[in-house]
């Protein structure tokens, strides 16, 4: 066995054995068994989600430019305004690739340092009010993690807000970078937590495809058993994902059917 440090996780894997033919066939049967439960979206449905995210990202970037122009006390030059950027990042089950048909999308609006949370819950809400695709708009500022809830072109979407202490937001920003948390207020740290945890899980699993298939199977099982609910005192989505990720670390080369068996 190679040193522990060569593997993700706190220990070395239990087994490095790859899948046998029977394991691959069982994994195919597992996927067939999951299909009636509506866990796999069509190409059209996946494209629709991507269009929604592109649209909301465009709205956010334009809104940040408009807010910057209105900051008369700062008086930014136009070329600087165009460089401020802004970004919508996804997290939760959709980011993990373990969402089901019609599931909501969890997002975080990343803004540069001169854009305030008050701007997000005032002028950006107004932007959304005048966006035809947006229905059922609600701003919940008093929540533990303040957020905006909406239905965007038929898909439920939640958006939290984080202002980073950066003058510009690069397109390829890595939210796992702990230096980004410096000097942030508690609400912004909480808003970033979802993305940071999700990205870290994906970073630490040896095979993302096998992880996603196994997690989907576990979610179906947990929901059918009535134990998939953080609100009711059971495990929530992130907790199940962490448990499945750990099994994937212990059996890094195993097929989804094997991982499901080892989980149980």
From TrEMBL:
It catalyses: RNA(n) + ATP = RNA(n)-3'-adenine ribonucleotide + diphosphate. Residues 9-205 form the Poly(A) polymerase nucleotidyltransferase domain. The keyword Kinase does not apply. This is polynucleotide adenylyltransferase. Belongs to the poly(A) polymerase family. Residues 210-263 form the Poly(A) polymerase central domain. One of its GO terms (biological process) is mRNA processing. It is found in: Nucleus. InterPro entries: NT_sf, PolA_pol_cen_dom, PolA_pol_NTPase. Keywords: ATP-binding, Magnesium, Metal-binding, mRNA processing, Nucleotide-binding, Nucleus, Transferase.
